[in-house]
Design a protein that fits this description.
565 residues, alpha/beta, two-stranded antiparallel ribbon
Amino acid sequence: MSATKLISAYILLLLVSVFFQRTHAVGNAILEVVSDSGQPSTDKYCIQYNDQYQQLPKTLENASPLNLKDLSDIEGCDLSEYRGHQISSHHTLVAVMRGNCSFTLKALIAEAASARAVLVVDYANSSLTPLPGGNKTEYGALNITLAVISWHDYQTIIHSGGQVRVSLYAPSRPRWDANMMFIIFASTLLVMFGGVWAAYSEEQAWKQRSKVRASSIDTEESEEEGLPFTVCGVLIWFAFICTTILLLYFFYDYMVYVFIALFCIVGAHSLYRCLLPLWTRIMPINYDIPLNRLPCFKSKANLGSLILLMPCLTLGIFWAVERHASYAWVLQDILGACFCVYLIQNLRLPSLKIISILLVMLLLYDVFFVFITPLLTSDGESVMVSVATGGKGGSKESLPMVFLIPLFGDSPLYMCRERSYSLLGFGDVIIPGLLVAYNAVCDVRLRRGGIHNGRTLYFIVAVAGYLIGMVLCMVSLMLMESGQPALLYLVPCTLIPTVAMALCRKELGLLYRGHSRISADSQDTVESQVGAGHVQEGRAEEEEDEDENGIRANEHLEEQMNLIS
């Protein structure tokens, strides 16, 4: 497939994703209890309305206060239900229970009963407040405001006592929050740090191999070429990932505790591995605890490493215990950052071919579970968003596989969000980070092998592409006002510049075949340089021998002439 066809397919995929985003309207508004003095109140509640066909005032000052009439004991599906319930004035908002008729029918009957607005109270066991349905024709027949409120919020309002006056208004939806800049630069730094660590490890390994070759010419070279991943292995891994997210969607209340336990252990181990190089420099303790002194240890344990392991494991357990606390997001982000960096540095795939297949498949996976699954689920919500925001069950647990970044703004509509955080999945850092780390290792091998003198060409291109991809993702987030699959932007922005750079330098074959091919070509280059050096040395020795023979011949000739004379 040509590059033009690939770019066209990507643009088509992007346009399809935009279409699916635009077909879902979300209208958040604020119901505020108005005090007797008319001053702004602290009692604010989130309500849902259909912003495609109805308009609400933008500010509280422009909203007219309405008297709340509690009719939550009826469904309001028939005008006869309003008998016995006198509506005192046209400045009345009636609250009815959600029932077996449509939202627009409730609004039409409430309007016939002289109400100014109708507030539909959701079911008590509902986990997500619905958006009022209906089409343009149905809303065109309405002259009153229709909104929906959660059962819990409504119970709080009516139990405040006395006559309640409320105002409905819809502030401008915040498209941008300052935490977006933090997400962009923090994720880029994590990817960059993982790549630098991978390059440093490769540099040290190269020096070690050079020492081995120098000490023994006949020693066979054994290199770690990364994980033995094949195309079949990638397909199996991809199937495992798809199965996992489906299990999370259908059995979230059970699977989430498995992931909490795994994250506690893996996060503590990653923190330990990230701190270990620095710790060994600060605390160079070389004492090894003898065997059979510690349980669960089959080999000697280093005392210094054990001292570091204990607080790391304690921090992981502390997060698991305090994961619902207001400060738990800090611990989760620290453990998650160490997990991403360690995995990027340690999980090295063998070739650009394998990485490209993996990245493209995960891009399609991300797009499918974000954009396509809303067409297949009963509630119209994507599987990815449902899993990332806590599932449909009653466990109230969050999946600890995302970064939580608090919102920095103060918009009233932030209270309509289920969480006051922005989310970034670990996969959005790890998956492109594998390509960044691969490029960093390739730079080291190409430089050490003398194939080119560039230092970090492929690494810089991949990091810059990741930064651009994150910017594009945030711009799309602001324009579409909905969660985005970040890999839709990160994969092309990192993979395409890498391939373009390799084509320009005529090194695509080396990167495509992988580290082993780069090492082999690098070794051939070194050997050819060494062989050329031996030839030059041989010629120099021959010239020196010829000079010495000439000098000796001249000396012998002079001796003969002296004897004759």
